[in-house]
């Protein structure tokens, strides 16, 4: 029987792995790719030295640093499903693209280092997922090392992130004494030392919550302790609720060790039981577009420029929301009402890019673009114009003053800035009165990409003066008195001419709030 579009959509799971650098995102991603057998990705997961990844001609910065500037997409076939993993780079590669990638997924996996708990970048990325109300699954990693007490980690997770947690399994010891996990969800114990327990990887748990039979592990106090912890959790912990998971209000928590591969398979199997398939998307006019709808639709969430400097090409990453992609089909770009033939599309492979033959909701396709597409653009097929809800803007934290080096080349400077800002590569602010240009970003890399692209694509060299980190807060036009501004809260306007203060630090902001208690300051996301 022929599969309908809706049938195909049900086989898709599209997610991102979020974490603070070094928590183990790359290691766990590689495990997942391994289970799938096929590795498909754009660029590198993270600067791997293997020649396999060296074929793509990324822009110069990427080559120098051995990283992929923007998030990559990986496809894995697993258990009859097509899993799409969207990478969210960390460290200095962190940028607005990282946040925007979270707009294109249906769920997220949060990886936490058991020795460190909740770290700043995890918190930031979590916030974006929470705002979207998507399911968030937690993997507490590095149990093969001595880390913090599991109960302590769960408490921190709930308190810092303000989300309920439900342990799907519970560790039996850690570090050298890590014996495995007591798997609450699957009613079994998973062992790190099967050889000491009759060669069993798993032992079933009986009605009393104990292992039947005389195995080495049953003599261990670590096992007894875990069993007692689980009993306590069952009595005093949160209720398991599929509905709460779906709404992103309850996070199922798994323990394991990505490096040794322990618990990752168990995690993945439970994850696919609960992770949602692509759901409906809302348009600006409030219409709901079902993923099984016949006509193709999707939105651009990222643009990667200069994949090949010789051709000056760009790739627009499109998240498909409905319909079925076929090579050569025509779509309309809603913003410009222009028709576009989807002739040069790509999906992402380890060592090559392949032409897409078929794709449905949840899948990500790359469109070669010569400047017709912008971040946030909707493409659609059919007669009814369609515009998906705008992608959110994110509060920048880093700022730079920027001026052209050569005053004779002001025209290309302005054109370049305008286009890069429109594309979403960077945010633009101007000082309120003197209209000096200030760039805002969430990550340092955005400035480097900006400088590089302005020089290479617009032939404009710039002087960049770091202003460091600031706290940007918007104020209503009616509330604004220009005398409120001082050296510690620079008054600027954003690209829509809305007034915004750049506060030196938390202290300066609190001082302002105390002085003007009636003034309401707002942040972007
Ligand atoms: P990412 O920055 O989040 O992508 O982290 P990586 O996957 O690159 O891991 C950072 C470091 O932690 C690497 O040296 C890994 O080998 C190590 N690592 C990752 N997972 C584990 C684990 O489960 N146990 C231990 N001991 N080390 C791990």
What binds here, in terms of ligands, is: guanosine-5'-diphosphate
Euclidean distance between termini CA atoms: 46 Å
Q: Helix segment count?
A: 12
Q: Provide the domain count.
A: 3
Q: Which strand order do you get reading across the main beta sheet?
A: 2-3-4-1-5-6-12-7
Strand percentage lies at 25-35%
Radius of gyration: 25 Å
The CATH architecture assignment of the largest domain turns out to be 3-Layer(aba) Sandwich
The amount of helix comes to 10-25%
The shape is globular
Family: Belongs to the TRAFAC class translation factor GTPase superfamily. Classic translation factor GTPase family. PrfC subfamily.
Domain Tr-type G: 10-279
GO molecular function, one term: GTP binding
Keywords: Cytoplasm, GTP-binding, Nucleotide-binding, Protein biosynthesis
Task: Describe the 3D structure.
By secondary structure, the protein is an alpha+beta fold. The protein folds into three domains: 15-68 and 91-274, 3-Layer(aba) Sandwich (Rossmann fold); 281-380, Rossmann fold, CATH 3.40.50.300; 398-522, Peptide chain release factor 3, domain III (Alpha-Beta Plaits, 2-Layer Sandwich), CATH 3.30.70. The chain is built from twelve helices and 32 strands. It has an eight-stranded mixed sheet with strand order 2-3-4-1-5-6-12-7, sandwiched between helices. Strand 9 (180-183) and strand 10 form a beta hairpin. Helix 10 (410-423) packs across helix 11. It is globular. Residues 39-71 have low confidence and may be disordered. The structure holds guanosine-5'-diphosphate (GDP). Guanosine-5'-diphosphate (GDP) is lined by residues 19, 21-27, 46, 90, 141-142, 144-145, 257-259.
